[in-house]
């Protein structure tokens, strides 16, 4: 049984190689790709902080130093902006450095998401914790993570976030079979499978990159064999917890089905759409960008040469 039952810690796996964005990510972490004017990872860290999580752990790897630099202060830059009286930029710069207590640990040998989570064991210890994946940005007006934390605190189990996707998209995600819980707005997970083919998928409910995990997941991960892509899959470990009989340590995996706004930045096309959509919705950029987009769309290419 955990001694600490309140969720306080957030883990951000950020050791992936970013191969989908090569060559842009050859010397730069994919988490630092700008989404409008902030690196993608900053939105995700801000989301955890807004949900009340104050102890933040980033799992990094080689070529990820700029991540640490981004969340660190640069007094000379701040002084220069202060002198110039540029309070807007000063505020923007300070926003990234006043988010909380950020710790870093390196995942020397990236062996999958499950392995990245396992790297957080010593830091997290025996308490429930959140995991946020950097490829998903959840709109700042949504309360998904806070809702998931509330479900974790109520059930004492593990909570994932699910979202309905088109059947042909399910093979890009972990997929869940669920059953309703009478009177509750969250569901119980009865089965999980990592990236099934559409024809084998138990549903069109995809795991999106938010988890609130029971610490029993660590022992399970230690014993989880590499799965899909020869990687240690978090989904497989959660399937083990979901199949535990009630009353056993870590039994009970639940889900909040998210219907709000999510931006995927995990591949080139989704990333471009996310940047355009988020910029179009902003007061400082939308009024100029949207009419331009409408005009551009009229003359945008409709045929493409095989070049
Ligand atoms: C990971 C998980 C997958 C989940 C996805 C959400 O996959 O393994 O279950 O659906 O994140 O973004 P990845 O996208 O890292 O391949």
Write up this protein.
The chain has 307 residues and is of the alpha/beta class. It has a single domain (9-266), classed as Alpha-Beta Complex (Spore Coat Polysaccharide Biosynthesis Protein SpsA, Chain A), CATH 3.90.550.10. Helix content is 33%, strand content 22%. It has 11 helices and 13 strands. The strands form 3 sheets. Strands 5-4-1-6-11-8-12-10-9 form a 9-stranded mixed beta sheet. Strand 2 and strand 3 form a beta hairpin. Helix 8 (216-222) packs across helix 9 (234-242). The chain is globular and about 60 Å long. 1-O-phosphono-alpha-D-glucopyranose (G1P) binds at residues 113, 133, 135-136, 173-174, 194, 206-209, 233-235, 266.
Key structural traits:
alpha/beta, Spore Coat Polysaccharide Biosynthesis Protein SpsA, Chain A, 9-stranded mixed sheet, two-stranded antiparallel sheet, 13 strands, binds 1-O-phosphono-alpha-D-glucopyranose
Please summarize what this structure is:
The chain contains eleven helices and 13 strands. By secondary structure, the chain is an alpha/beta fold. Strands 5-4-1-6-11-8-12-10-9 form a nine-stranded mixed beta sheet.
CATH superfamily: Spore Coat Polysaccharide Biosynthesis Protein SpsA, Chain A
Q: At CATH's second level, what is the architecture? A: Alpha-Beta Complex
User: Can you list the ligands bound to this structure?
Assistant: 1-O-phosphono-alpha-D-glucopyranose
Largest sheet: 9 strands, mixed
- The name CATH uses for the topology is Spore Coat Polysaccharide Biosynthesis Protein SpsA, Chain A
Portion of residues in beta strands equals 15-25%
CATH class: Alpha Beta
Q: Got a strand count?
A: 13
Please state the average pLDDT score. Answer: 93
Rg over CA atoms? 20 Å
Could you say how many structural domains there are in total? 1
Number of helices: 11
Low-pLDDT segments: none
Helix coverage percent of residues?
25-40%
Q: Order of helices and strands, N to C?
A: EEEHEHHHEHHEEHEEEEHHEEHH
């Amino acid at each position: 049984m955990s001694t600490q039952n309140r969720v306080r810690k957030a883990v951000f796996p950020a050791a992936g190689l970013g191969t989908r964005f090569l060559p842009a990510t050859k010397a730069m972490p994919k988490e630092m790709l700008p989404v409008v004017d902030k690196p993608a990872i900053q939105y995700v860290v801000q989301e955890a902080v807004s949900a009340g999580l104050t102890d933040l752990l980033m799992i990094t790897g080689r070529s990820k130093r700029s991540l640490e630099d981004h969340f660190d202060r640069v007094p000379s830059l701040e002084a220069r902006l202060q002198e110039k009286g540029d309070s807007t930029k000063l505020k923007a710069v300070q926003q990234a450095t006043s988010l909380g207590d950020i710790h870093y640990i390196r995942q020397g040998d990236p062996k999958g998401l499950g392995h990245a989570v396992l790297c957080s064991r010593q830091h997290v210890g025996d308490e429930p914790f959140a995991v946020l994946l950097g490829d998903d940005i959840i709109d700042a007006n949504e309360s998904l993570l806070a809702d998931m934390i509330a479900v974790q605190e109520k059930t004492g189990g593990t909570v994932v976030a699910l979202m309905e996707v088109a059947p042909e998209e399910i093979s890009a995600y972990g997929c869940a079979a669920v059953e309703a819980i009478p009177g509750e707005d969250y569901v119980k997970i009865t089965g999980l499978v990592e990236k099934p083919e559409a024809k084998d998928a138990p549903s069109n409910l995809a795991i999106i990159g938010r988890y609130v995990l029971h610490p029993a997941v660590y022992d399970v991960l230690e014993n989880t064999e590499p799965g899909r892509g020869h990687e240690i899959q978090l989904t497989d470990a959660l399937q083990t917890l979901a199949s535990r009989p009630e009353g056993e340590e870590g039994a009970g995996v639940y889900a909040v089905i998210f219907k709000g706004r999510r931006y995927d930045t995990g591949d080139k096309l989704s990333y471009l759409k996310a940047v355009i959509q988020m910029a179009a919705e902003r007061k400082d950029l939308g009024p100029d960008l949207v009419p331009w987009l409408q005009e551009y769309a009229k003359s945008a290419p409709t045929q493409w040469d095989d070049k």
